Amino acid sequence: MYRLRDIEETVQQTAEAIAEALMIEVEIADPALVRIAGTGRYRDGVGRVLEDGFVYRHILRTGDAVIIDRPGNHELCRPCARRGSCSETAEVAVPIKIGEETIGVIGLIGFDGQQGKRLLSRQESLLRFLEKMADLIAGKTAENVQNRQRESLVHRLETVLNLLHDGLLVVSADKAITHHNEVAASMTDLTAGAVVMLPQIMDEKKLWKAIEKGRGFSGQVKGRRVAGHWYCDAMPIIREDVLDGAIVILKDVQEIKRLVNDTTVSDIATEFSQIIGNSMKIRELKALACKVASGNSTLLIQGESGTGKELLARAIHQSSGRSQNAFIAINCGAIPETLLESELFGYEEGSFTGAKRGGKLGKFELANNGTLFLDEIGDMPLHLQVKILRVLQERRVERVGSSRSIPVDVRIIAATHRNLEKMVAAGEFREDLYYRLNVIPLTIPPLRERREDIPLLIDHYLEHYCNLIGKQVNRLAAEAASLLNRYAWPGNVRELANVVEYAVTMATGGFIGLKDLPKRIKAEEPVKLQDDHLNLKSLEREAITKALEAAAAEGCKDDAAKRLGISRATLYRKIKEYGIAERKVFS
Hints:
Helices cover 43% and strands 18% of the residues. The strands form 6 sheets. It has a 5-stranded antiparallel β-sheet, with helices on both faces. The relative contact order is 0.05. The protein is an alpha/beta fold.
């Protein structure tokens, strides 16, 4: 909104300048007919509403200039009470306009014959002069509004920037810091109003080299005024193809780690009481795990797939002195060998093709002061086993592409479903690493060895999935419960949970019957545990023998591994492990 009263001092100065130049009284009014400025007899009336504003009201309505040569007798003077006895001798008035909006009126008034004659004899030149004065006042008014809008915008931007958790610096082309937010001031010890150069607060060489090439920069920079490191993102400011400066955003490395900790401390059930089971084996396992949780010893959890190795690791972490820090889990068998090293140890910028600018923190660094869970450690390549052993011995890590070692305080919990002792004997796993990991072994029994826990687990998952899916299923029919208790559960607790979820989804009444169970469960023959010939090892030995016989019969003896879906090295290890007579097959 344009208001003359916002530049009242400027308007008054303009009125006085006009009066001095023309030797004629001047008044300037706004759209409410309030006198904003005045000279001579009008000065004392500044701030008051004009009593008789008939001429000005016409100008405000039409936007046209007016010349009154016979005050008191002019058509616009008809409503005036002083019509016929007006003290004025002449009047020239012009609108003050911004675009199509009239924001005020400038009036020149003569009170004697000489002033009247001066006004009327120079009408055209006076009109042009007043229009320029009106344009000057309009320009100042618009400029004032723009300045206020700019100040408001700057204030809003400053408020937003000060709400950021990161430090922000605006740097000129000569590296002078021209603006900064409060976080940046705190991080770099900047003082408001002081002229500070970027090299004074950080080692900016790599950063500015990228900026000068018109590229962005991401990476760690070292502080100078304040000791420590920041993670920095910077972008050049280019104006008309010329470098005009840069925007630099600073993140505190320790704050990044804290945020990682906050997001990686899982809300998955991690208390020992939430590990379902009341069998002797489970009670003994939980008692041992609870006992060792408070220490810092490396742990090795062994058990078949689906037994809950990660859940036990999380419970141990939650019960340890590291519970307020990160629990980082990585599956060594699920990540390609080419990526596993950089995931574990991180990398420096430019260390390999495709590496992110600024590098990347590895899992060891992210887990600092917390727990690193190495799942499926048996699938880790031998050359990485050497690096893991070195970390366990020295408590330091080196990023890929770096020669600098970084100290870490991490508790390692490893897990595997494989027999590491036999892998060591076969040369597939390092013996020294095995003994480093196996400080305190914890073995989770398979579900088939703790069948008394099956009803407890079924009740737990039945309640869980009923709440999750939004169905009311109260129980299992007797024949369904009997079948689930007889089933072998090769997938252990994970498979049981999936079966209960399927059954709850399929159930149409208040209970789960045989028809609601997966077909594979109903097709399974009851397991005769007392028959040693039907255990898993016997079945595996039989499958290998049949594959070898079939491959030999077809004249393609090496095809046995493909038939079994395993590598040749694993096949020969299994042949040795089970004592299968190769000469009978490969003769």
